[in-house]
């Protein structure tokens, strides 16, 4: 089967979880014997670390990174879409998605749509997003053969756009087991000049929706109770770094809160291995992929109830709290006061992730859906 995965960017710094999901789905569908290609824009790929052959990537020239605008490429997209059996459109608010959608309709090709948490309008460009939905966004959602929700909560969001529940399938994020058990903690600590304190880790974009300000304020309030810990904040700046540096300086917290910027694939394993606890303070998220990244390495997680992953607490792999300073503060106090239990929590989460979220099984769920769609389309 010829499968086309569509995503704005393959840059894991800019694209985050959607770029990672696109890479992994392509890799594992290819391993299942499918002809799987990616259509994206031509900047920021991490092929060295993603096990994806460059020949499977079709890159359009990007002329505006702010709005992910490609150079005129209608006929190239037309040709790629025409040669595909089924198309998987990832994320939303994308001119590339709109272009693929138009060509899918012209060529009468079936497609599935996976918003990956992007449907809720939040943050900047709210007016532009509303206009996009009016012009074409709602059509992309409604006319899809199926929609894929990466959390059960996202099924409700998609349903609110008028999509029948029979056309919405829950396929969660996945994780690949790491091939090596080599400890890379020292490599990570040396790279970012981190002292030998225990680490509470944040991994994500430094913006409001990710709630990193909530975490910083919460840890600032209680850091004096845990002098053996440091908060390490890893992620690209999206407008909050200067405020955070000011907050750290104002409260003399430079010895216990470290901003290390974006941590690339070559240091990510070491970051998780060094952590005693991962914190995901998001205000809104479909399903946090960093929970899986921490869990596969047996690290416990403190996360909010807006991350689409309350099962973490149900399996005793961490704690779920409200997305507030008080919620994060109380969660930290509870977990750090029971430090001896953290290791067991991490092992519980690892076992749960290995059972339910490995990519070889998640890819099979996608392939089953694609076969169902193409069989129906050929009747």
3D architecture notes:
The chain is an alpha/beta fold and about 375 residues long. The chain folds into two domains: about 1-175 and about 360-375, Glycogen Phosphorylase B (Rossmann fold), CATH 3.40.50; about 185-355, 3-Layer(aba) Sandwich (Rossmann fold), CATH 3.40.50.2000. Helix content is about 45%, strand content about 20%. The chain has helices spanning about 10-30, 75-80, 95-105, 125-140, 150-160, 185-190, 210-220, 240-250, 265-275, 290-295, 310-315, 325-335, 340-355, 360-375; strands at about 1-5, 35-40, 55-60, 60-65, 70, 85-90, 110-115, 145-150, 170, 200-205, 230-235, 255-260, 275-280, 300-305, 320. The strands form three sheets. Strands 3-2-1-6-7-8-9 form a seven-stranded parallel β-sheet, with helices on both faces. A six-stranded parallel β-sheet has the order 12-11-10-13-14-15, sandwiched between helices. Helix 3 links the parallel strand 6 and strand 7 (about 110-115). Helix 1 (about 10-30) crosses helix 14 (about 360-375) and helix 7 crosses helix 12.
Supply the key terms.
Rossmann fold; 18% strand; 14 helices; 15 strands
**Text of the CATH class of the largest domain:** Alpha Beta
Distance, first to last CA: 16 Å
Portion of residues in helices? Answer: 40-55%
Structural class by sheet pairing and helices: alpha/beta
> What string gives the helices and strands in order?
EHEEEEHEHEHEHEHEHEHEHEHEHEHHH
CATH architecture of the largest domain: 3-Layer(aba) Sandwich
Strand arrangement, major sheet: 3-2-1-6-7-8-9
> Quick one: how many beta strands?
15
């Amino acid at each position: 089967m010829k499968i086309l995965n569509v995503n704005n960017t393959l840059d894991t710094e800019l694209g985050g979880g959607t770029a990672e999901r696109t890479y992994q789905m392509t890799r594992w569908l290819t391993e299942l014997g499918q002809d799987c290609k990616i259509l994206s824009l031509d900047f920021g790929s991490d092929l060295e670390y993603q096990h994806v052959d460059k020949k499977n990537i079709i890159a359009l020239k990007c002329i505006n990174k702010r709005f992910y605008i490609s150079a005129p490429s209608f006929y190239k997209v037309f040709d790629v879409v025409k040669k595909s059996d089924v198309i998987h459109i990832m994320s939303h608010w994308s001119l590339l998605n709109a272009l693929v959608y138009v060509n899918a309709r012209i060529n009468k090709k079936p497609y599935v749509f996976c918003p990956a948490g992007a449907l809720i309008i939040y943050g900047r460009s709210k007016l532009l997003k509303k206009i996009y939905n009016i012009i074409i966004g709602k059509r992309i959602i409604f006319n899809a053969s199926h929609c894929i929700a990466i959390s059960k909560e996202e099924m409700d969001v998609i349903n609110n756009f008028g999509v029948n529940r029979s056309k919405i399938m829950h396929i969660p994020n996945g994780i690949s087991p790491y091939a090596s058990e080599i400890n890379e903690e020292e490599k990570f600590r040396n790279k970012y000049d981190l002292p030998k304190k225990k680490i509470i880790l944040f991994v994500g974009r430094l913006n409001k929706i990710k709630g990193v300000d909530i975490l910083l304020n919460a840890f600032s309030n209680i850091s004096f109770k845990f002098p053996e810990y440091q908060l390490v904040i890893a992620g690209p700046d999206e407008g909050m770094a200067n405020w955070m540096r000011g907050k750290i300086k104002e409260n003399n917290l430079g010895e216990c809160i470290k901003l290390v910027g974006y941590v690339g694939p070559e240091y990510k394993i070491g970051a998780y291995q060094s952590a005693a606890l991962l914190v995901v303070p998001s205000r809104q998220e479909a399903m946090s992929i960093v929970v899986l990244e921490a869990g596969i390495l047996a690290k416990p997680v403190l996360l909010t109830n807006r991350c689409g992953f309350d099962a973490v607490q149900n399996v005793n792999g961490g704690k779920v709290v409200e997305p507030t300073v008080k919620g994060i503060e109380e969660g930290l106090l509870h977990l750090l006061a029971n430090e001896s239990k953290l290791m067991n929590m991490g092992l519980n989460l690892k076992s749960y992730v290995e059972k339910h979220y490995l990519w070889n099984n998640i890819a099979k769920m996608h392939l089953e859906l694609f076969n169902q769609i193409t069989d129906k389309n050929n009747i």
